[in-house]
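FORM 7B - TANDEM STRUCTURE REPORT

SECTION 1: FIRST PROTEIN
SEQUENCE AND TOKENS:
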Amino acid sequence: MKNSKVFRKDVGQTNLLIKVGKISGRNAVRRSKAMDLVVTYIEKGIVYEEKPDGSKTQIDIVDSKPTEITLKKGMILHGKQKESKDIC
């Protein structure tokens, strides 16, 4: 079996941020439920709202569209800046 090595220096930091995000998300949901607040989340592309009594209501469906951009190594991206309306 071939071992795959990762040569990026920030892998440990990225994994730590993912772990911290999961823990803080769980804590936020637990505390919101403890304070009888409504929790909104996405599950399998559907947005649900869960009330403190445990009932769920479907709010919206998230459309997942495949990206139209295919990136290749060495490509240069040029971003367009939106026009801003300055209020003076």
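SECTION 2: SECOND PROTEIN
SEQUENCE AND TOKENS:
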Amino acid sequence: MNWSLFNVANNFNYLRYSVGIAMMFNGFPLIFFIRDTLGVGPASSVFTAMFFSLALILMVPPTLFKRIYKPNVILINLALGFLLLTLWYFIFMNHQGKAVADVGNFVFTFGFLALLMHVPNDVKDTLIQVLFLFSFFTNITLVYSLITDPNWTPGMRAAVSFANEGAQPGGNPHITARNGVITLLSAIVLLGNTKHLLTRLFLFFSILFGMGVVVLSLAKSSYLGLGIAFGAYFLFHFKFSDLTSGIANAFKFRNMVFLVLILVAINYFLARYGNILNLLLGYWDIFEDRIMNVIFTSTGVRLSEEADVDYSAMGRVSGFGEFLETLYSWDIFLGRGYKNDYLDVPLLESWVNHGIFGFIFFTSFNFFMLLYVIREVRRHTNPLTTFLAYFFLSMMVLLFTGGRPYDIAFWFPYSVMIRFLGIKYLDAIPRFRKVARPKPQPISTVTT
């Protein structure tokens, strides 16, 4: 981790680009904190629109319309194919009405994607660190929100409670979990590139902090997503020789000091706040019961005597029935229309509501994204793309378990992945090969 990148005088533009991207990529937790906990601004989508508008303003470069940077061509073509198709459905095959919020989602998605094409490639070094600190700070705001919320008690799902009338009670724990995942994954990536002892301790604490937030959220999709991400790492990188060398390195003086400090800190924390460990174990028991309920609901197999129907999973099971019904009707070709049915399974909904072409565009986009992610997991090109690859693996579960195919919760992260993932960066070239750095053209498409 390079703290000098936070020097505003020397790195102002890259910092403002990065803050703007981070606000779009992971802005909802901070929006809920400012709007609902602090009570600043209207408790409606108006505040969200103001927040995202500020983010886009921060991303505007001085070279706007003069220099465009090349994204992942395959991904952007498939993404634009799906987004333009859904926009056409929104205008011409819409039985639900043209809500202002839907218009805003399209505007911010296309605006964010367009501005990313004008952000320089070198922002990647600053961006990964800003994403980490942004999510870490947001975790702190979550703790403040829970402490000051009179309706929240230990054992409940951790989330910022919404202030507007008729809102979902208890807030949105999936947003909380996603922020914890971002903190955890970005800290792990930065930890592998950091040698300073105090910074390594801070990153290690951040990993535990992020893991604790994920556990408190009780979001099953995040648990499974992290399992897939860590499974991919061990599949492509773990070797028995790494285990033996890791044990040997642990006995080096510098690493011994690091381990001792961690153990002392953990021991002090548990001695002072021992009830927190019991609280986390209690959350694990709740999660285990929820998994048993999902298995019983989906398969009818009762693996524990306490297993009961999970109504969230039941909704997805019934959604699969809607999908099968579509396959045997004329809707298989054109679909039923924009947001006509809510299946809570984005892959299936892309077909039910948008027909065969919507399904092909959306599924192909995620398939090719997965191919680039696997390649990045194997290569570890640079910290930003490594983080984006593991983050996609962690959110891939949502394609089968929650949301809609055009949700900005999908497309804001997707936009960043389209811009930076699968691009041949100069720093990916082996060090023993000296390649001259090309001079930028005043108006060009730069291949990165």
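SECTION 3: OBSERVATIONS ON SECOND PROTEIN
Residues 426-438, 440-448 have pLDDT under 50 and may be disordered.
Residues 71 and 419 are 4 Å apart (CA to CA).

SECTION 4: SIGNATURE
Preparer initials: ____
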